[in-house]
Amino acid sequence: NKPKASIVVDAYTGRILWQDNIDEVRDPASISKVMTVYLVMEAIAKGELSIDQKITATKEDQAISNIYAISNNKIVEGVEYPIEELLKMTLVPSSNAATLMLANAITNDSAKFVEKMNAKAKELGMNHTYFNNASGAVAELFQGYYNPEGYDASKPNQTTARDLAILAMDIMNRFPKVLEYTNSAVVKTMEGTPYEEKFDTYNYSLPGAKYGIEGVNGLKTGSSGYGAFNYIATYDKDQMKLVEVVLGVGDWSNQDGEFIRHTFGNAILNYVLEHFSYRTILSAGEHNFDGHKITTNKTLSMIVEKGKIPEWQVENKKINVKLSGDFLKDNQKNPSVDVVAESGFADLPKEPEKRKQTLQVYIVQNAFAFAVIIGGSILFILVLFGESRAKKRRKQKRK
């Protein structure tokens, strides 16, 4: 029953706090819808769509919503659905009809939309992800209403725990409004209209749900015969901002996997919360470091392992924290802060060998000053020594 792959990452930096088979290729099922939501949110940010823009449901949309074999909600031909409501329908009841309505709002060419999904995956660094459809349900299940040309209608999408963590981290940081649609155990859509519906979440790790954990606020579940039971959890509490991905729990033949995935996921999340915390490493202001003073105008805080004091160093006018561990992507790193003032030898490199070489150069460049100082010191000592001997001779004569 245990997950085939799992990961927990620091959503500030991308540092991996827990990992198991994170690059194993899996079917994400309905988690695929997160990429469709991402593209919609990006289009809204660019002004190409608006959150309150209304999409009129077509005859095909209604027909898709009536397909029993795939997850859906009730869509009625001719009704205008605001994009915000379609986002809720996509993320919570995992409506395939609503997902395709969102995709069509970007382009009516279904193949072109899948192409956009794959292009965005590549741009984000999701190197082991490939989409064949917009929703996670294989196209052949849509009874001919949906078939992106050039993509295999019988093949599921493929991705990895690492890649989904990259996507979730980006959407969490770039489009946090999405979490407003996913943070409740019960969600209503088209509220106050004849088409109002009420849905219980499938994310049982949300507060108020069966296995709720305070701080969980999203994001998406997914299950299929190919991929078994999966989910992405986002967590934000006490400045601990995390993304968790759990893939391949249980077996499709046992639908209890829908609940079991959360018992495993919660155990992993609780392990991370027990072993890591958000801490201030260096407060803004003046600090003594290696024999000199440095000043920063920002506080350096981050998620670190409990009971361990992280090392930090000054390089190129920046304070960097040294922490072990991998990152989701090669271009990610631990946070740093700028040094805005320094004194002493703070401008010298911190590596011992380089510092020694630089100090030698410094001495050579200031040889005359050193000679004057040393010569003056010797002359002063000789004068004192001479005066001391003269006093002794005068005392001897008096005797």
List the helices and strands and how they pair.
Elements: E1 5-10, E2 16-20, H1 33-45, E3 54-56, H2 59-65, E4 80-82, H3 83-91, H4 96-106, H5 110-124, H6 161-174, H7 178-182, E5 186-189, E6 197-200, E7 216-224, E8 228-237, E9 240-249, H8 257-275, E10 276-282, E11 285-289, E12 292-296, E13 300-305, E14 311-315, E15 318-322, E16 336-342, H9 352-365, H10 367-398
Antiparallel strand pairs: 1-2, 1-9, 3-4, 5-6, 7-8, 8-9, 10-13, 11-12, 12-16, 14-15, 15-16
Helix pairs in contact: 1-4, 2-4, 3-4
Describe this structure in words.
By secondary structure, this protein is of the alpha+beta class. The protein folds into 3 domains: 5-277, DD-peptidase/beta-lactamase superfamily (Beta-lactamase); 283-362, Roll (Spermidine Synthase, Chain: A, domain 2), CATH 2.30.140; 366-398. It is 35% helix and 24% strand. It has 10 helices and 16 strands. The protein has helices spanning 33-45, 59-65, 83-91, 96-106, 110-124, 161-174, 178-182, 257-275, 352-365, 367-398; strands spanning 5-10, 16-20, 54-56, 80-82, 186-189, 197-200, 216-224, 228-237, 240-249, 276-282, 285-289, 292-296, 300-305, 311-315, 318-322, 336-342. The strands form 5 sheets. A 5-stranded antiparallel sheet has the order 2-1-9-8-7, sandwiched between helices. Strands 11-12-16-15-14 form a 5-stranded antiparallel sheet, with no helix packed on it. It has a two-stranded antiparallel ribbon with strand order 3-4. Strand 5 (186-189) and strand 6 form a beta hairpin. Helix 1 runs parallel beside helix 4, helix 2 runs antiparallel to helix 4 and helix 3 crosses helix 4 (96-106). The longest helix is centred in the last third of the chain and has 32 residues, at 367-398. The radius of gyration is 31 Å and the shape is elongated. The model is unreliable at 345-370 and 394-399 (pLDDT under 50).
